[in-house]
Amino acid sequence: MAVPIEGRVLAVTVIDSQAEQALQFGGEDIWGYLWSIGPACVLHAQDVASGEETWVLVWGLHPINGQGIDLRLEVNSVDAALGRLRDRIRADGGGLRRMRGIVLVSHPSLEGEAQREDRGETMAYRSSVNALSLRTTIDGLCDMLPVILGA
């Protein structure tokens, strides 16, 4: 999918990071690193003009006990993990990779607006589980796409 953002055109691919076909995006060298921290999916965005890439790793957390998940704790943990991952890739000669993180959290009894926490290159987003929640979550993420992709 091509996404125009502020005068730029980004080609964005949504990749099921658990599928073997993921290897065809960005070369096999990156996937060993990405798999080491276990995202559910990855958004690969590439600026059509410059070729600049952004890797957005996405995790989904769904508590089975009905208790809320601490968004601040999760966003801090993921942001730290992304920092360590970037450092490891660079130390192994893979250059500096532009990476972002998104943690999607469901909450069965959350009322009202979705909640959001940000830290560094990572965002955590919690929404309720109901008939409208998927649409609300997608709309919210689309509104934040320029920030998520670093545009």
Topology, pairings included?
Blueprint: E1 2-5, E2 8-16, H1 28-36, E3 41-47, E4 53-61, H2 71-91, E5 99-107, E6 115-119, E7 122-128, H3 133-143, H4 145-148
Parallel strand pairs: 4-5, 5-7
Antiparallel strand pairs: 1-2, 2-3, 3-4, 6-7
Explain what you see:
The chain has about 150 residues and is α/β, with parallel strands linked by helices. It has one domain (about 1-150). About 30% of the residues lie in helices and about 35% in strands. The protein contains four helices and seven strands; from the N terminus they run ββαββαβββαα. The chain has helices at about 30-35, 70-90, 135-145, 145-150, and strands at about 1-5, 10-15, 40-45, 55-60, 100-105, 115-120, 120-130. It has a seven-stranded mixed β-sheet, sandwiched between helices. Strand 4, helix 2 and strand 5 form a beta-alpha-beta unit. The longest helix has 21 residues, at about 70-90. The protein is globular. The model has no long low-confidence stretch (mean pLDDT about 80).
